Amino acid sequence: MGRSGRVTLTDVAKASGVSRATVSFVLNDDPRQTISAATRERVVEAAADLGYVPHGIARALREGSSRIVVLNVDWGMEGNFSRSYVRGLDEELAEHDHILLVRHGHAIPEATQKVLDTIAPRAVLRLGEVYMQGHAPNAEDWENGFAANAALQLTYLAERGHARIAMAMPDHDFPLTAARLGFAREAVRRLGLPALERFVVPRPREAGAAAVKVFLAAHPDVTALAAFDDDIALRSLTALNDLGVRVPENMAVIGFDETEHGSLSTPALTTVHIDAEILGRIAARDALGIDSGGLAPVPGRIVVRTSA
Questions:
Q1: Are 215 and 243 in contact (CB under 8 A)?
Q2: Angle value at C-alpha 198, between 193 and 201, nearest 5 degrees
């Protein structure tokens, strides 16, 4: 054992009867070295018996970066989409001997620089950054990307005869608020419907009901609410119930980015389900410089319940 109590390459070398360099070649699976199968087996067994763990800092210095990929997730981005994205990213990185570190709400440059200085990550990603930078959707985005999922929500309402639709919004901006609202407005335009109305459904419950009451009084022709997410949809359902507005008979409500709570409401919440696991896997391969051919995003789908 080394003086620190940690098993070192020297310890493994002594136990297996080979040089320290040979141990390094074997454990790092160096393709440039010709080492017999018997020697490899002896080194691997010795490392396992001693409980050898590679020194991450030393390896980072040797390789130029650690085997850590950092993902920044801004506050307000947590949901089924982000969870499935993280799951795919984590599993794909693990398959290539890398580790995922997820940081919530710390995407400012100063905080990110501290991470870079401390662990020299292989890559630093930010969930949804391309849209935060004002990315204009292309044909692929409208086919199976973020824009397509936003359009799916509005299309479902339009196909059921709703022409006057309002978007129920949160009472503070999230990183993707502008992109989300922009895609919804463009989707309504493509559907040939009147311009999308919008209003805020705040907390607490009484404030939400008051806001919905004021909006409906000013827009009696609106027959459907497309909520920013499931949380806002559930606030809207509660407000409508408190106001005595029947759902879906007098007002349809549809959520976005399905959560488990939607199935527990009365009426149960119709919503948009988004599975981003493949997107996470694609991001992992891009970060590692691996071809992502053969992986394609899974289109969103409507979870049909009774609120719309």
A1: no
A2: 140
What is the rounded distance in angstroms from the CA atom of residue 243 to the CA atom of residue 216? 11
Q: What is the pTM of this model?
A: 0.77
Sheet strands (E) in the chain: 68-73, 99-104, 123-126, 165-169, 197-200, 224-227, 252-254, 271-273, 301-303
DSSP-based three-state secondary structure for 19: coil
Closest by Cα among 150, 144, 175, 133 to 278: 144
Q: Please give the average pLDDT of every successive group of 10 residues along the chain, which has 308 residues.
A: 61 90 77 82 90 60 71 87 96 93 80 76 88 79 89 98 97 88 95 97 97 98 97 98 98 96 96 95 93 90 98
The crossing angle, in degrees rounded to 10, of helices 20-27 and 9-16 is 100
Q: Token pair for residue 171?
A: 């009472």
